[in-house]
Amino acid sequence: MVAQGDRPARSSCASRFDQKRVETRRLQSERHVERIYRLGPRLVFELLDEIARHHGLDADLDRRLARYAALDPAILRAVSADRFAPLPLHTVESDG
Q1: pLDDT at 2
Q2: In whole angstroms, what is the distance from residue 84 CA to residue 19 CA?
Q3: Is 72 helix (H, G, I), strand (E, B) or coil?
Q4: How far is the CA of 34 from the CAs of 26, 39, 84, in angstroms?
Q5: Distance separating alpha carbons of residues 27 and 14, to the nearest angstrom
Q6: For the stretch 34-55, what's the b/e string if a residue is b when 16 or more beta carbons lie within 10 angstroms of its beta carbon?
Q7: What is the distance between the alpha carbons of residues 51 and 61, in angstroms, rounded to a whole number?
Q8: C-alpha–C-alpha distance, residues 8 and 76, integer Å
Q9: What is residue 11's DSSP assignment?
């Protein structure tokens, strides 16, 4: 019997599967953000505003926007923080 609040140990296979699923979701989100960004600042604003209104995050969003707006673009470029990392490469093993 498992005590209340204790969770049974997860297999490493399930854990790897969950990690892969999270990584895949993040990569999809990055690609979506790239597409939305190319559509212009108005669409980015509308998305952020919709999320803030839906979740009651107006003040938090305003603080974060001010902080991000104050970042130095030259420094972001210098440390490659102005773009997403390239898509990961996967090795394909052959049978012989």
Answers
A1: 46
A2: 19
A3: coil
A4: 12, 9, 9
A5: 20
A6: eeeeeeeeeeeeeeeeeebeee
A7: 9
A8: 43
A9: P
Please give the DSSP secondary-structure letter assigned to residue 95. -
Q: For the residues 28-51, what does the mean pLDDT come to?
A: 96
Token digits for 38?
């190319």
Residue written as token pair 């898509």: 87
Query: Residue 81 CB: number of other CB atoms within 10 A?
Result: 11
Three-state DSSP state, 87: coil
pTM: predicted TM-score of the whole model, two decimal places:
0.67
In this structure, which amino acid lies at residue 67? R
Look up residue 19 and give its amino acid.
Q
**Contact status, residue 58 vs residue 52, Cβ threshold 8 Å:** yes
- Which pLDDT does position 16 carry in this prediction? 83
Length of the chain: 96
Q: What is the pLDDT of residue 33?
A: 96
